[in-house]
């Protein structure tokens, strides 16, 4: 009986001449018995060699990684974490300057019930609708990572045969207040600005939600030329889903960082190709090389498999600190509480019966002028 090694691969003895042809075996092994031994061994060996299912659709090589765009979008993915909703909605927050100065938010939605947050707005450079989703708070990150290890529930994705996705990520986008608020804001922005480009971004779980939103906009709203760039995103579906996603949204980049553990989750089991989760292309891996005090940052553009063994899969995914910084930008909440929000009571918002909040305004409307001194903040923990 054979066991398994630490990576879950079947642990077979080495194939030797003595194993196939035992000493002094005589002629009794020269008939059907020998053939059964050979067939059985080779079959088991084939199951353990880790051959992977290939993506059915090739990634669009016409879409290239843009470093400048990445350094812009990572700032949006960082800003959406902030708990000061007044400063965020008026774009006067501590993270709302530098490369993303002048951005106009037209929708800020907070699903208090599920600790989710996202915004929709219009940027001048790049001239596009930007949609950003918040990831998991750093304080609850460890518990969330443990859930990714063990709670791998799949559901069928509508209209996609054999495509299966992670239930938690799918539900976070589709079955909360996030989706209707996002789609409504996109429709208002498009009616004002016309056929403007849509770019989605997010970090960690926010990256997973950005991917599902991009797919939703493409499949259900028939939007063209949707772009998605995520940071530290986990796997969200199986190989069939990855193939369909890469065909429908070829303008997608997943940025990973050094030993960031989240892109390694849910675990990838190459010996269960039909069931395992798999990344869609294309990955850009950020890592450092150097000797002593001389350290250089490298951006490696990976292959079109989605699971390039020379990129983040070439290292162990053991670091939470690598998950919390991308391009030198902090990726995480500014609040010590997991789902705390602060807002000025003079800001008008829509609140449903479950306490979820929406802040909306028409595109190109003047920014609301507020005193940054918040006398009576409303805290929701």
Automatic annotation (TrEMBL):
One of its GO terms (molecular function) is hydrolase activity. Residues 130-268 form the Fungal lipase-type domain. Keywords: Hydrolase. GO terms for biological process: lipid metabolic process. It comes from the Eukaryota. CDD domains: Lipase_3. This is Fungal lipase-type domain-containing protein. It comes from Clitoria ternatea.
